[in-house]
Design goal:
This protein has 719 residues and is an alpha/beta fold. It contains 26 helices and 24 strands. Strand 17, helix 24 and strand 18 form a beta-alpha-beta unit. Helix 14 runs antiparallel to helix 17, helix 15 runs antiparallel to helix 19 and helix 22 packs parallel to helix 23.
C-alpha cells in the first residue's frame, strides 16, 4: 500500500478531535479578531459536532486581542502630553484577562448562532500537577461531550505564577500548542489538528522558494534537516513550538496534523483522509524510508543502469523485452484488478468521461501490449548501428553510429498502457527512464511498474525505470538538465505548456490533437462514411481522433453531406457547426475551431475546395494528423504536399497515426515538433548519434602530413 494511503487511513476511526487555533489565525495583522476566518472555523466545528464528533477547541489569541483593546483604552485615557512620552509596555497578564473575555464572548455569540453550546475552560500549568484535577477534568469534559457541548480551552495567563509566561518553556506545558498536545493525551483524543498561518511544516522558512512542504514528518530524518524561520510575531510559539508539541502527542499515540487555518475547509479535508498539511504519527518511519531518494538520485541511478543495459549484447536486451511481455501476461488478473479500482475511483470522483475512457484497460489490452513488445524485441537492434562510414584518410575511418539519448523523463496523464509502451521503447533503445503518471492511474501505474522492473535482470537493475509518485517532484526533475536529456509530456495542452515553460531540457511532444478529415467532391461515398466514422468513433478520446470534418461545398447539394451527418448522428456523435455549416445543417455553432473534444462530438464546416481545406487546417489545426478522402489523385497530391502536419493521409483514417500501426513496435508519444522526431515517436526518435574513429596513429600537425580522401565507404548490414 502506498505511503499516502496508510498515513491517512487513521482518520476513518476518529471520534474525539482536539483543534488548536493559533493567534495568527484568530487575529488579523491589526490585532483585531479575524471574524470571517474564525467564523469559518466555527462553522466547521459546529458541523463536526452535529455529525457526532466530540470536538475540543484550544484557542490562542487572548493576549493579542487584549493588548489591542488596552492600547485603545490607553489612548482614550491619555492627554496629548502623555502621548508625547515613551509608552510603557502593557502588562501581559492584564492583556490576557481583558482579551480572554472578548475572545470567549465572540465564541459564545458565533456558536450560539450555529445552535451549539460552548464552555470556557481556563487552566494553568500548576493545575496539571494535581492528580485530582486531572481526574476531574476528564470527568467534566466527558459530561460535556455527552451533551454536545464544545469546551474552549486556553491557558489562564492572567493568573499564571510563572515569572515569564511568554518565554518560559519549562513545566508540564508552556504555551497553547503544548497545552493542546497535553489535552489530547490526557483526554484520549483520536486526532489533534494544529491550525497555523501556513500550509504545514516546510523544509525551511515558507517564504524561501526552495522550501518544500513536508507531508509526513519522520523524526529520525527531519529533526536535523529543518531550518525554522522567525518566530511568530503574533503568538508565543511559532512553528518550532508546534513541531515540539506535535512530536510529543504523536509519540504518545495521538496522530497530529499541522495545517493552515486560512483555508475554509481544511479540518474537513483532514477527516476525509485527504493529504493536507503535515502529518505526525508514531508509525511514520514505517511508511517511508528514513533516507529519501532525491530526484537527482533517481535520475543518476537511471543513467547508470542505462549504461549497464547498453553493455549487454543485443540478444540479452531482446530477452529482457520478451521476459517483460511474458510477465505482463502472467500478471494480467492483478493488473486488471488494480486498473478496475482506478476506474471506479475516477468515476466516483466525477472525472470527465473522456479521461475515464483513456484510463480503462479493456479486455485484450495486456495481450495487445505484450504482442507489441514482442514485435519490438524482434526488430533490428537500434543501438550501435552504423549509419554512415567515411574514409577520412588512408587508414583513418570514421563511422556515424546510433546511440541512446541517455535519460528520458515522460510525464503522462490517464493512460496506464502508455507506461508499458514507453518502458519497452526505453529498454529497446538503451535509455534510462523516469515516469510520472496521472494520479487517477496511480494503482495501475504502480503494478505495471513493478511487473516490468521485476523482469529486468539484477545486472542492469530495476532503477533503470524510476516511477515518480508525487507531483511535487516534477519541478525538481525539470531542473536537472545536466542529468535528464529529453522530456516528453503526454497530456493536456496545459500540461505540455507548463512543462515547456519550466525547463531548459529539450521537450518533445504535442499540445493538442486537432485532427481533420476533408471529404472532397470526388469522394467515394461509402469510403467517406467508413473513414469519417472510424476517425471519430474508433476511440474518441485518442489524440488522433477526428475533431473537425471539412466538406467540399458541392457535397451540400448532392446529398453526400447529409449522409455523412446522418451516419455520425446515428452513432451518437454530437455535432457543432462552423459559421457556414451551422445554419445549413441546423446545428449549434462551435465556439472555437481549435477545440479537442476527446469525446463523441466534433465540428463540421463547409469549405470551397481543397485549398480552403488546407487553409482551414493551417489556421485552426495542431499539425498532428490530417486526412483527405478523394478519388482525384491530383487533388490528393496537393493535399499531401501542402498540409504541414506530422502525418497526412489519403483515403485512410486518422486513427492509423500510431507507433504500433506504423510498425514501430510502440511509441512514447506523437510529436508535432519539427526538430528531431516528428509524428509517432518510436525507437528511432529516442536515439542520437555518436562518431567512432579508427586510425593507425595519425596526427593533425597543422594538416601537413594528412592526405584527406573523404571517401564514402559501404555500410555492411549487421547479421
Amino acid at each position: 500500500m502506498a505511503e499516502t494511503d496508510r498515513s491517512r487511513a487513521f482518520t476513518k476511526n476518529v471520534k474525539r478531535i482536539v483543534v488548536k487555533v493559533g493567534t495568527a489565525v484568530v487575529t488579523g495583522k491589526d490585532g483585531r479578531l479575524a471574524l470571517g476566518r474564525l467564523g469559518a472555523i466555527c462553522e466547521q466545528l459546529a458541523e463536526l459536532n452535529s455529525d457526532g464528533f466530540e470536538v475540543i477547541l484550544v484557542s490562542s489569541g487572548a493576549v493579542g486581542l487584549g493588548r489591542q483593546r488596552l492600547r485603545y483604552r490607553q489612548l482614550v485615557n491619555s492627554s496629548f502630553a502623555d502621548l508625547q512620552k515613551p509608552q510603557n509596555e502593557l502588562d501581559g497578564k492584564a492583556c490576557a484577562a481583558v482579551g480572554q473575555s472578548s475572545l470567549m464572548a465572540y465564541y459564545e455569540t458565533m456558536f450560539d448562532q450555529l445552535d451549539v453550546t460552548v464552555a470556557q475552560m481556563l487552566v494553568t500549568d500548576k493545575d496539571f500537577r494535581d492528580k485530582d484535577f486531572r481526574k476531574q477534568l476528564s470527568e467534566t469534559v466527558k459530561a460535556m461531550m455527552k451533551m454536545r457541548v464544545i469546551p474552549v480551552f486556553n491557558e489562564n495567563d492572567a493568573i499564571s505564577t510563572r515569572k515569564a509566561p511568554y518565554k518560559d518553556s519549562t513545566g508540564i506545558f508552556w504555551d497553547n500548542d503544548s497545552l493542546a498536545a497535553l489535552l489530547s493525551l490526557e483526554l484520549k483524543a483520536d486526532l489533534l489538528v494544529l491550525l497555523s498561518d501556513v500550509e504545514g511544516l516546510y523544509t525551511g522558512p515558507p517564504s524561501d522558494p526552495n522550501s518544500t512542504l513536508i507531508h509526513t514528518y519522520i523524526k529520525e530524518k527531519h529533526q536535523e534537516e529543518i531550518t525554522f524561520g522567525e518566530k511568530s510575531k503574533l503568538g508565543r510559539g511559532g512553528m518550532t513550538a508546534k513541531v515540539k508539541a506535535a512530536v510529543s502527542a504523536a509519540y504518545g499515540g495521538i496522530p497530529v496534523i499541522i495545517t493552515s487555518g486560512f483555508a475554509a475547509d481544511n479540518i474537513a479535508k483532514v477527516l476525509n483522509g485527504l493529504r493536507v498539511g503535515t502529518l505526525f504519527h508514531q508509525d511514520a518511519h514505517l511508511w517511508a524510508p528514513v533516507v529519501d531518494t532525491t530526484s537527482r538520485d533517481m535520475a543518476v541511478a537511471a543513467r547508470e543502469s542505462s549504461r549497464k543495459l547498453q553493455a549487454l549484447s543485443s540478444e540479452e536486451r531482446k530477452n529482457i523485452l520478451l521476459d517483460i511481455a511474458n510477465a505482463l501476461e502472467a500478471n494480467e488478473k492483478i493488473i486488471k484488478a488494480e486498473n478496475d479500482l482506478d476506474v471506479a475511483v475516477a468515476q466516483q470522483a466525477g472525472y470527465e468521461e473522456s479521461l475515464v475512457a483513456r484510463l480503462v484497460m479493456k479486455p485484450g489490452k495486456i495481450s495487445s501490449l505484450a504482442a507489441s513488445i514482442r514485435q519490438l524485441a524482434e526488430m533490428e537492434d537500434p543501438i550501435g548501428r552504423v549509419l554512415a562510414k567515411t574514409e577520412i584518410a588512408d587508414g583513418l575511418v570514421l563511422e556515424k553510429t546510433s546511440s541512446p539519448l541517455g535519460v528520458l523523463l515522460i510525464v503522462f496523464e490517464s493512460r496506464p498502457d502508455a507506461l508499458v509502451q514507453i518502458a519497452s521503447l526505453a529498454i529497446r533503445s538503451g535509455n534510462g527512464l523516469l515516469l510520472k503518471g496521472g494520479k487517477e492511474a496511480r494503482r495501475s501505474n504502480a503494478i505495471l511498474h513493478k511487473v516490468i522492473t521485476d523482469a529486468i535482470p539484477k545486472t542492469v537493475g530495476g532503477k533503470l525505470i524510476g516511477l515518480v509518485t508525487s507531483r511535487d517532484e516534477i519541478p525538481d526533475l525539470l531542473k536537472l538538465d545536466d542529468v535528464i536529456d529529453l522530456v516528453i509530456p503526454r497530456g493536456s495542452n496545459k500540461l505540455v505548456s507548463q512543462i515547456k515553460n519550466s525547463t531548459k531540457i529539450p521537450v518533445l511532444g504535442h499540445a493538442d490533437g486537432i485532427c481533420h478529415v476533408y471529404v472532397d467532391k470526388s469522394c467515394n461515398l461509402d469510403m467517406a462514411k467508413r473513414v469519417v466514422s472510424d476517425a471519430k468513433l474508433d476511440y474518441p478520446a485518442a489524440c488522433n481522433a477526428m475533431e473537425t470534418l471539412l466538406v467540399h461545398k458541392d457535397l451540400e447539394n448532392n446529398g453526400v453531406l447529409n449522409e455523412l451527418i446522418h451516419a455520425l448522428q446515428a452513432s451518437g456523435v454530437t455535432l457543432y457547426g462552423g459559421p457556414r455549416a451551422s445554419g445549413k445543417l441546423n446545428i449549434p455553432e462551435t465556439q472555437s475551431f481549435h477545440h479537442e473534444y476527446s469525446a463523441k462530438a466534433c465540428t463540421v464546416e463547409i469549405v470551397e475546395d481543397v485549398h480552403g481545406a488546407i487553409d482551414h487546417i493551417h489556421n485552426h489545426g495542431s499539425a498532428h494528423t490530417d486526412c483527405i478522402v478523394t478519388e482525384d489523385s491530383e487533388v490528393a497530391d496537393i493535399f499531401l504536399r501542402q498540409v504541414d502536419s506530422a502525418a497526412v493521409f489519403h483515403n485512410a483514417s486518422t486513427r492509423f497515426c500510431d507507433g504500433f500501426r506504423f510498425g514501430l513496435g510502440a511509441e512514447v508519444g506523437i510529436s508535432t515538433s519539427r526538430i528531431h522526431a516528428r509524428g509517432p515517436v518510436g525507437v528511432e526518435g529516442l536515439l542520437t548519434t555518436r562518431w567512432i574513429m579508427r586510425g593507425e596513429g595519425q596526427v593533425v600537425d597543422g594538416d601537413k602530413g594528412v592526405a584527406y580522401t573523404h571517401k564514402d565507404l559501404p555500410v555492411l548490414k549487421r547479421t
